[in-house]
Amino acid sequence: MERRTFIKTIAGASLAADVSFAQTSAPDRKLGWALVGLGSLSTNQIAPALQKTKFCQLAAVVTGTPEKGVKWREKYGMTEKQVYDYTNFDKIIDDPAIDVVCIVLPNGMHHEFAIRAAKAGKHVFCEKPMANSAQECREMIAACEAAKKYLGTGYRCQREPHHLEAIRFAREKVFGEVRHVDAGFGFKIGDPKQWRLNRKLAGGGALMDVGVYAMQACRYLMGEEPSEISAFETKTDPVKFAQVDETIQWMMKFPSGRTSNCTTTYNFNGLNFFTAIAQKGRFGMNPTYGYNGLKGWTSDPAHPLDFEDTDHFVTQMDAFSEAILTNKPFEPSGVEGLRDLLVIEAIYKSIASGKSERVASV
User: Fold this and answer.
1) Structural domains of the chain ordered from first start
2) Is 213 a catalytic residue?
């Protein structure tokens, strides 16, 4: 299949659908999205992207800071009724303009608000990582299934052209079978008082925040789930990182015998890549996981890995809304979020035990 056709096809379809849906007619309206949490990501990425989507519109915001609510009303022409707080959030059940609740809160709050949104009869789109534990993920999935609502996770790279082309290379064995993947993502974190360094809110440190991107790359390039993990942690500042991890390195072994090595950190900048080593060549990206400026490369000029920047948030929000409107499956779903937490828990378990650990099944 020609590469750009493949990308268009896979971006609009499930990577690994668990259920089948009967397709209906093309979307004829926009779904109303409510943003829960008005931090940097909502302010600088998600809200501006919503203005550019085909199938979405900003219907409400939820914030614990009244001043933010006023600013958002003024900027986006919203009414007082479109601004909720965390205590009256459940009243969204009476707001027919809200179809989707987009959770952009600290990780430790995802579970609570996803379940409350499902009980209010709304579809749920949750930023990664989906929750602080695999059990919380299972409860979120169960709540959405009980409400017969969609649950999507914000793994935007799974719909980005460079990553989709890399997936095609792997699936179609353009360079032969991928035998090994090296991947890493990290940065030097600043403010020691921020929520990302609070275990209750973050669930973990660099691994939960950015290491999950490297883990994702390995999983979707291999096309199978890791079965065994060996990991260790390094801390250079035990005071700043008293509650969460600073730097973690781990190896994943897959059922086929293939392997991957990953690194994540809050200690230094410049770690933002993956390299896939196949039977007849190599391909990779650097930088890989940011919002723009992504660069791909391959060992064969006949198979380039080059695309223009896209707005990842526009793509993933439109895909989620379109899936709902046309009654089609959506990936990455809540099950994808659960799979990552199962790997993360195996990594932390390996660090604690000092030996290799098995990854639990879904």
Assistant:
1) 14-156 (3.40.50.720), 161-309+333-358 (3.30.360.10)
2) yes
Is 73 strand, coil or helix? Answer: helix
pLDDT tens column, 288-336: 999 999 999 999 999 999 999 999 999 999 999 999 999 999 999 999 9
Neighbours of 23 (CB within 10 A): 10
Please pick, among 84, 150, 155, 213, the residue that the annotation labels catalytic.
213
> What are the helix (H) ranges across the chain?
3-11, 40-41, 47-50, 66-76, 110-119, 134-147, 161-171, 199-202, 206, 212-222, 312-326, 334-353
Q: Give yes or no: 128 in active site.
A: yes
pTM of the shown model: 0.93
Q: Write out the H or E segment, with its range, that includes residue 260.
A: strand 259-265
Residue 228: burial class (beta carbons within 10 Å; 0-12, 13-18, 19+): middle
Contacts of 356 by beta carbon, 8 Å cutoff, 6+ apart:
228, 229, 230, 253, 350
DSSP per position, 95-158:
-TT--EEEE-S-GGGHHHHHHHHHHTT-EEEEPSS--SSHHHHHHHHHHHHHHT--EEE--GGG
CA distance 213 to 354: 24
3-state DSSP percent of the chain in helix, strand and coil, to 5: 40, 20, 40
